[in-house]
Amino acid sequence: MNPREKDKQLSARILRFGFILIFVFVTTPLYDPSLRAQATSFTQAYLRLDRMKASTATGGTVCAKPVTTATEADVKVVFPTGFTVNGTAGNWTVTTTNLPSGASAWLGIGTATAVSSQTVTFPSSDLTVGTLYCFNFTGTSTLTTSSAGSSKTGTITTTTSAPADIDLTSYATAVVSDDQIVVSAVVPAIFTFALSANTDSFTGNLSTTTTSTTGVTTTVATNAQAGWIQWVKSANAALSSSTASASIATAGTVDNSPTDLASTTGYVLDVDVTTDSGTGSGTVTQASNYGAEYNGTNSTSGGTLSTTFQPIAASDGTTDGDVLTLTERAKISAVQAAASDYTDTLTVVAAGRF
């Protein structure tokens, strides 16, 4: 081969090599750090479902604490595979009340702008790094959980308007067969009843003017919703003396109206509401057929005693201590047989209206 031919071949090789270098340089992109950049994980992020029961419609709360300085435009929530995601963005309304402790309302949050498969996109304003932001998603049947199982995964991502990912965290949740605990309790029926004494003497000798006893109180406490009733019955419907074979009969008749001894003689019982407890729902009354007979209005009046139980007062609700005062009154004629053993026995009972 002559020298001229060798020069031609060498020149051709140099041209081919140069072309290859140029092709590689032109077709290989310059290094771009943004192409290699990946979204940073939030300092913390989580999805709290309002219900974790299988196949149940639920709302929830999304929380995240940004770590990257950038201008957020959206937050995208990817719900776990198997969850049913409502495809209408307008149904994904949000609230920022009743947020977890220490959280701030997510800035710029509003009704979702897009739904694609398991991904729901919400608007966002620029967030401050290091602040925990939260929002609640609500609406009608926006999300329905899947069948029961553990480690149901999804992601929470903030993006710029480009869009480009800013912070991204994968989360996991679980779905159980039932997420509720039925708590049961029993409040026992409560009823207490007490008399302050079991004897009650007249303060002086009986006379032609009305004389009264010292008085005995009864106290009721109960959690009966409808309250209580008290009754009284007399052994004799009179003050009786065995030594004198005499008695002082009760005055009047049982007719829901007290009898005033100012104009007659006899023996009666006055019942006063001493304490209507301020604790509880009940109000003590002496209404018709519930104590009106014994609601004496002065120091000489009272109700007719009976040998059968007669109501003396009632309450219509709970109480921690209603108090009645029972006072016997008597007035005799000038010819009433003298004796020191006039007596009667009153039986006082009560019941709660449960």
Could you walk me through the main structural features you see in this protein, from its secondary elements to its overall organization?
8% of the residues lie in helices and 38% in strands. The chain has 354 residues and is mainly beta. The protein has two domains: 38-175, Immunoglobulin-like, CATH 2.60.40.290; 191-352, Immunoglobulin-like, CATH 2.60.40. Strands 1, 3, 6, 7 and 10 form a five-stranded mixed beta sheet that branches. A five-stranded antiparallel beta sheet has the order 8-9-4-12-13, with no helix packed on it.
List the helices and strands and how they pair.
Elements: H1 3-27, H2 33-36, E1 44-49, E2 57-58, E3 60-65, E4 74-78, E5 84-85, E6 93-95, E7 104-105, E8 114-116, E9 119-123, E10 133-138, E11 143-144, E12 149-159, E13 165-175, E14 191-195, E15 211-212, E16 216-222, E17 228-234, E18 238-241, E19 246-249, E20 259-260, E21 266-275, E22 284-285, E23 301-302, E24 310-315, E25 319-331, E26 346-352
Parallel strand pairs: 7-10
Antiparallel strand pairs: 1-3, 2-11, 3-10, 4-9, 4-12, 5-11, 6-10, 8-9, 12-13, 14-16, 15-25, 16-25, 17-24, 17-26, 18-19, 20-23, 21-25, 22-24
